[in-house]
Design brief:
8 helices; 3-stranded antiparallel beta sheet; mainly alpha; two-stranded antiparallel sheet; Arc Repressor Mutant, subunit A; single chain; 5 strands; about 60% helix
């Protein structure tokens, strides 16, 4: 019996042809590198991203942090609780609107920024890419994300 060469449709179903798999595998590989680099800071990668937003923007409502990180409140709330329990952030309910909670850095959370300054450089080195390649990859991923956000899944084409 001879093997049948897969046709174009069958080729498209190969695991190694799936962009989602490649992105997922790269994400898990990044997660492994971040796990090592963030261990001394006492942060997980998701906690690190929350801290990045707060270091960059200062105190913010939970909803705004979720928008920056593309996380819903069900995912974000446990992260914030753990960061608060660690003494890195504090949450305060708004006096004007008790549904709104603002998160701000504590002194310990602000001080942790100094220890995190080496993380981006070490991540960049771990990629094996030069700065221009990293910028290009980031721009391509941003375009991909924006295109997927606009995708019309009922018709299969992006909505412009």
């Amino acid at each position: 019996m001879t093997a049948v060469s897969p046709g174009p449709v069958e080729e498209s179903l190969r695991l190694d042809h799936q962009i989602c798999f490649a992105l997922g595998a790269a994400s898990r590989a990044f997660g492994s590198v971040y796990r090592v680099l963030l261990k001394d800071l006492g942060l997980t990668y998701p906690q690190y991203t929350v801290m990045l937003v707060l270091w960059e923007h200062g105190a913010l409502p939970v909803k705004r942090i979720g928008e920056y990180l593309r996380l819903d409140s069900g995912t974000l709330s446990p992260l914030l609780k753990r960061l608060e329990a660690s003494g890195l952030v504090a949450r305060e309910r708004s006096a004007d609107d008790e549904r709104s909670v603002t998160v701000h850095l504590t002194d310990a959370g602000a001080a942790l920024r100094e220890g995190a300054l080496e993380v981006p450089r070490r991540i960049a080195a771990a990629t094996g890419l030069d700065l221009d390649e990293i910028r290009d990859l980031r721009a391509r991923l941003d375009r991909l994300t924006a295109t997927l956000d606009r995708a019309d899944l009922t018709g299969g084409a992006p909505v412009h």
